[in-house]
Design a protein that fits this description.
Blueprint lengths: L13 E5 L2 E4 L4 E4 L2 H4 L8 H13 L10 H14 L5 E5 L2 H16 L3 E5 L8 H5 L16 E4 L4 H8 L4 E6 L13 H14 L2 E5 L23 E4 L10 E5 L18 H16 L2 H20 L4 H5 E7 L2 E6 L3 H10 L3 E2 L1 E3 L3 E4 L7 H17 L1
Parallel strand pairs: 3-13, 5-6, 5-7, 7-8, 8-9
Antiparallel strand pairs: 1-2, 2-3, 4-10, 9-10, 11-12, 12-15, 14-15
Helix pairs in contact: 2-8, 3-8, 6-7, 9-12
Length: 384
């Protein structure tokens, strides 16, 4: 049997990681500024993470959700406290797409509606409802194209208000910083107006914090920069630092009903141990604050590079982002730049669209790592 060939791969076999660095099977070290699609939050192979997950595996790896799991209760309390949502409820699943599926189902259970508003260039996952609210027709199969979704321009509040005022919208789902969409930021004015319009029309407001949340923006959640408090918040990626996990944070206005939502593997003992270790390290090492500090430094230095008078400056059209979620908009396709950074400079970055380099490093990145990247990026852009 062969693998189903749906991923274009770099010809590199990563076998080890530590902090913000990874190594291939030939012993070559790389600076990791992509964190496996923003999954690595506290750094690769953190000793506390290893110890906590190993200890749990030695006791019990899995049992069903038909019995008490005190790790889930502990995780809900810790997450509520650290995120500022102590009064919310937590439902645990396995991935970001699953989180958005359950958020949308819960919204529809609550108000009985079926129409959803989503932003142009949004990405919310690849399962049934999650892919339908993703604005990419190439990955929406005919069976998923249920006609539930209206896509609207980010930050165009009148356009969203017009649709909401029709009174038939079940839910609004929003990335406060778009990832795949090119690191586009929602404005406070838009987000606050949208929240008010949702409330006025009985529409559930969902913030997708799967990529931009969990400390990456320099606050626990990206929407906390915008002065809003959504009805439902979805999380995944950084919650388990590589262990598959997702979660839905649910307003106290929602009343749980037995059997309404369910999962086999969600919130299992190993996943909860991983998630608790992540919160331990985020708190003890002040990683949210570090994301803000180093992210602000990177953004400042990249903008200085863009305003220079060398070839590198000419290639940088725009720099966007917040915290450690950064997009570098180039005047050339990112492919050659990214390949040079990986194969010649040994630095992993991500991408968005055709021309955007995307940076999503572990939250433990240091300024010296940022300086190394800035030096290598300037070198690569000057040589193209």
């Amino acid at each position: 049997m062969k693998l189903f060939d749906v991923y274009p791969l770099f010809n590199i076999n990563i076998v080890k990681g530590k902090g913000c660095h990874v190594w291939d099977d030939k012993g070559q070290e790389y600076l990791d500024l992509y964190g496996g699609h923003a999954v690595i939050s506290i750094g690769h192979s953190h000793p506390h993470y290893i110890e906590k997950v190993t200890r749990q595996l030695e006791n019990l790896g899995f049992y069903s959700n038909s019995v008490i799991n005190t790790l889930q209760i502990h995780l809900a309390k810790r997450l509520g406290y650290l995120s500022g949502y102590e009064d919310y409820q937590l439902f645990l699943i396995n991935s970001g797409a699953e989180a958005n599926e359950n958020a949308l189902k819960l919204a529809s259970f609550t108000n009985g509606r079926t129409r959803v508003l989503s932003a142009e260039k949004a990405f919310h996952g690849r399962t049934s409802l999650a892919v339908e609210v993703t604005n990419n027709p190439k990955i929406i199969a005919p069976i998923n194209d249920g006609g539930h979704v209206t896509y609207l321009p980010l930050n165009d509040l009148p356009a969203w208000e017009r649709e909401l005022d029709k009174g038939d919208v079940c839910a609004v789902i929003l990335e406060c910083i778009q990832g795949v969409g090119g690191i586009k930021l929602a404005t406070p004015e838009f987000a606050q107006g949208l929240a008010e319009a949702c409330k006025r029309n009985g529409t559930i407001f969902i913030c997708d914090e799967i990529q931009c949340g969990y400390g990456r923006s320099g606050k626990f959640f990206a929407h906390q920069w915008l002065g809003i408090r959504p009805d439902i918040i979805t999380v995944a990626k950084g919650i388990g630092n590589g262990f598959p996990m997702g979660g839905v944070l649910i307003s106290p206005a929602f009343k749980p009903v037995y059997g309404q939502l369910g999962t086999t593997f969600g919130g299992n003992h190993l996943a909860c141990s991983a998630a608790l270790a992540v919160l331990d390290v985020m708190e003890s090492e002040q990683l949210v604050e570090n994301a803000n500090t180093v992210g602000s430094y990177l953004l400042e230095k990249l903008r200085e590079m863009a305003s220079g008078d060398d070839k590198a400056a000419q290639h940088i059209k725009d720099v966007r982002g917040r915290g450690l979620m950064i997009g570098i908009d180039l005047d050339i396709p990112h492919k050659e730049v990214r390949q040079n950074l990986i194969y010649e400079q040994h630095i992993f970055t991500g991408c968005a669209g055709t021309n955007i380099l995307r940076l999503l490093p572990p939250l433990c990145i240091k300024k010296e790592d940022a300086d190394l990247f800035l030096e290598k990026l300037r070198q690569v852009l000057n040589e193209i």
